[in-house]
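The passage that follows is intended for readers who have already worked through the single-chain material. We present the inputs for a multi-component assembly, then the predicted structure in tokenized form, and finally a short commentary. You are encouraged to pause after the input and sketch how you expect the pieces to fit together before reading on.
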Amino acid sequence: MSTRLATKARLLNTDKQIRFSFNGKQMIGYEGDTLASALLANGQMMMGRSFKYHRPRGVIASGAEEPNALVGLGSGARFEPNQRATTTELFDGLSATSQNHWPSLEFDIGAVNNKLARFFPAGFYYKTFMAPRAAWKSVFEPIVRQSAGLGKVPKDRDADRYEHFYAFMDVVVVGGGVAGLQAAKAAAQSGAKVLLLEQTAHWGGRAPVDGGVIDGQPVDKFVEELVSELETMPNVTLRLRCMASGVYDHGYVLGYERLTDHAPEASGPRHRLWRVRAKQVVTATGAIERPLSFAGNDVPGVMLASAIRDYAVDYGVSVGDRTVVVTNNDDAYRTAITLKNLGLEVPAVIDARASAGGELAEEAKALGIRVETGKGIAKVQGSKRVTGVAICSQAGEGAVIEEIPCDAVAMSGGWSPVVHLWSHCGGKLIWDDVRSMFRPDVDKAPTGADGQGFVVAAGSANGLLHLQNILADAQAAGASAAKAAGFTPKSAAAPEAQAREEAPIEPVWLMPQGAGPKLRMKAWLDFQNDVKVSDVMLAAQEGYESVEHTKRYTTLGMATDQGKLSNINGLATLARSLNADIPQVGTTTFRPPYTPISMGAIAGEARGEIFQPLRKTPMHGWHEEHGAHWEPVGHWRRPYCYPRQGESHADAVAREINQTRKSVGMLDASTLGKIIVKGPDAGKFLDMLYTNMMSTLKPGKCRYGLMCSENGFLIDDGVVARIDEDTFLCHTTTGGADRIHGHMEEWLQTEWWDWKVYTANVTEQYAQIAVVGPNARKLLEKLGGMDVSKDTLPFMQWQDGELAGIGVRVYRISFSGELSYEIAVPASNGRALWDKIAEAGAEFGIMPYGTEALHVMRAEKGFIMIGDETDGTVIPQDLGLTWAISKKKEDYLGKRAQARSHMTDPKRWKLVGLETIDGSVLPDGAYAVAEGTNANGQRNTQGRVTSTYHSPTLGKGIAMGLVLNGPDRMGEVIDFPGTDGKTYKARICDPVFYDKDGEKQNV
Amino acid sequence: MSELSALNGAAFHGTVTVEDAGLQGMIALRGDLASAKLAKAVKVATGLAIPAVRKISSEGDKAVAWMSPDELLILAPYEDTGDVVAQLNEALAGEHVLVQNLSDARATFSLTGAPGALREVLAKLAPVDLSPDAFGPGDFRRTRLAQVAGAFWFEDTTTARVICFRSVAEYVYGLLCVSAEDGGEVGIFG
Amino acid sequence: MLILHCPYCGVDAEETELHAGGEAHLKRFGPGSSDADFESYLFGRENPKGVHFERWRHVNGCGKWFHAARCTATLEVFGTYSAQVLEPPQDIRDAITAKRPGWSWRDIQ
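Having made your guess, compare it with the prediction:
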């Protein structure tokens, strides 16, 4: 059993008890505990089951590298799966549940996978689910789905809030251990602005547990004083619980700050994502201990030696009464010594090296600890808990020499520098044969905008393991980062440190080195994804020789821990299998984030009402009050129609159209783009932008125009009004305002910069109200203030004036075929004018109408719509708009492209009207079929529907479409198969269905 | 008066106070900023000199902000905009310029509060260095506020102004409020 | 995420303030041009691993287009300059030569 010790723990406040629950069972911990330490203190060694074989798993580490102890935290709107117990701070009321088992953690049916493990080797799924094809849907997929997934997906909307924060720093130091603290001080002393990020809740990192003396003081004391000193420096910002999750191009660093995970009742955001721009980054991210690969190394109770030490020292937790230490280096002796000094039993230190180490080994021996050199573990005994180990010769094949009863195993395969942040942005690594580790290649740092390196690794993250070397390296790293950021560092010596001298490590990638298949099948590399030594060897044997291929074939390192414990052991195993050197095999790519970060932090403030900007016109409130059914148009919300009680949308649209055509309707047209184009060259400029001639337009008049891209394709349309000799106002489509303004500025700034033209996007300066229908003039006359008669304000002209006492500009343009006025008014008066029109219109039964009525009415008139009749491949000539293309102009954007052979091909589909024989509505987007089939065996096509509606005016379905030789085939009936299995027959006709001569709009 | 600002006087009190600043006169002036005639016209209309790059100069109820190498933003009381536009057009008659009243195209917010809190609210939304040594009263910055374009400046250390397009006023107000919610203090600007 | 210095307003703008505009220094061919010229204007683009010239717009800022010279492989930025020139100015070319001796792009060296 694991239990709480009576001795004082470094990080605990034993005066304050904390209540929490695990799988519904009430437990008690102390302030300062992590969930993992508190579970261990409560004797809960088993914390979950593995992903693939559902093997019982206990915690193995004490920090961010933990692969096993993943739990679901909280409930309801605060539930979150896959949280590491080792990095979860305990708080009152915490509730955790274990994962990957059914029905319970202790008894799990899925564990049958474990019994069948030898039938599920690497690549099992790839090999098995290939054939028969038909079995996939009915047999394989249901099985895979049932067993897939890690943890449970939260069901409720997240109750917390999140935010981003932009910060600009000279030096960002990642890691608040002794190296990070020292580097921060060295950098800050130059005057540089320094941000120091530490992922845990404590400063000091591992050093206080590992021991040593700095400047004559214990490490804890040194850390305390250094933190106090940094806190007084105005140019230093210190953040605990803030993990640097990634380092990106040009010094971009993401920091993931967990503000209230440990105090969920506190107000404020739960997580804050720091979006930092750093001139220089110091990675003082420490090192992670490697497991050893022996049979049964995943049995609960087998842990990293450093973790067992951490739990004992930091949290006063003993993992077991009798702990066997197994190692290939000196550091693990610290665990043996610590446990022994706490009064716990250490039956033996199994040292794989032929001759055991330095000062630490001597100290252990002096304490009476048995040290066995040249030995290894053949096998761990026990299933849900370690009961003993079988010892063998490391050099042999696993013949058991002795069995030692024990309830915990502390393993150490050496240390790997945390090089993730160094590598994210392209920093290279070198293999250090002496220290058996990949460490940063200082000559190949990630480079920034100036081509110079911007990341410096420091301390054990740089491959250094002795305290004195770590501090000296950190001092140098901080100073060099400050210098590279443009500051002059003070010349100061690093603090003096004393620590034990250690004998060299001897790499051990398999224990014993000659372990046969049976042992290899139980020697775990990746604990979370259940990848064993045998799987990697199989992958190599099957030809997956690249480390990237092996990774994907075996899923090694692809779990949520991203292989923090498994990667080096895995690639060393691969190297051994391929009989290659480790550097030859290389590493897989390190990608951000360092540990998983919440989706909430990534979204930041973008959720709920402000998930994305919603654009609202000045009349938005009125529409809302009148029950508008909304249609999103770009970021705008426009009323689609205004359904009344019990009325369908289709009925509402029909009512809106009928009343508009019969009497008068009103439309909020504020979203239409409006761009002022002004200057002596404005006419010349617009002649280049539009296919038709705009320079000849007379002030006071309006002209419909088409805009094409340089590819010749139609990109926008709208009415241009000439305001005065120098000034035009160009209307664009709703979605086109920003795009077309950008298009204009692009040509003015980058091609015709000597032309004297200025533009201004005035879209939002004006609210625009269309008053449409035979009674429109009467209504405006009733409002009074200006002459809107046919003679003063004829079709396609505009006038400034006043209506109902409000200053307006009135355009006589029509998109419906009716007598129509579009009234522009400064936005802040939009609502007032709208209200007055609605009020005055009551006697005419004025009908507010939405976008659907607008669309139907324009289709009845055969007017095209950008985005319906055009899709980025359509040129104006396809749409029968040659009347709007100037023959006189030498040039306009798109003209040359429209002369290309494909564009002049007579076989291009052309716009026609389509009416169904039975009056039904053609399906949108339907294709007209032709004789024969194409090379793919599909039916040939000869056209497609671009717009299709029920016309209340005509009482039948109307449509427009692009059809092969369409304009020459009037009256011909063609077939449009629908997705409903029916074939619709439609007759080709003139696209203008209503008032062909335009008499209604021109009255 | 029938004119309405986009949010009609909304206000929120958190780490700072966020308020709809109401209708603000705004005029875009595009032209050759190096021309003496233009400088004189601006001087006559506002009493102010043309500001340096990314600066704003102000006096009383008028201000001039640098928008781009050929554009200024002139701030004046909403009811005076017509006069200022007329004054500018008259002074610049015959010149190649564009004077455009944009008062109704935008929304203005006023942020008041402790200097550090004010900076933090903006630093949660804009990729701009808001430390006091990088940005202070007199500076003017066009940038991005979360997902939309916007601009801001400090009138003094405890008052900031934020402008955005009118149609997204509610969105920007929402952004500012959520960024100013209590408990979100970062504590980085003192 | 890139940072580019806007030569018009002086802001060191991060990519979220910018809009990428593709290859720089294209020569426009209009009506009357040959099919080959027009095709290369419309579709022919460099795809270098190394020195490249691009157009960018400071869209969430002063709104101006500008040119940038940078390395597509390392993202090193050699300089930014006016949009209103037909080819890279000498100081930009010199800056590139200092870092990438022997570079070439189209027919520019």
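Commentary: The mean pLDDT of chain B is 96. Residues 24-104 of chain B form a domain with the Alpha-Beta Plaits fold (CATH 3.30.70.1520). How closely did your sketch match?
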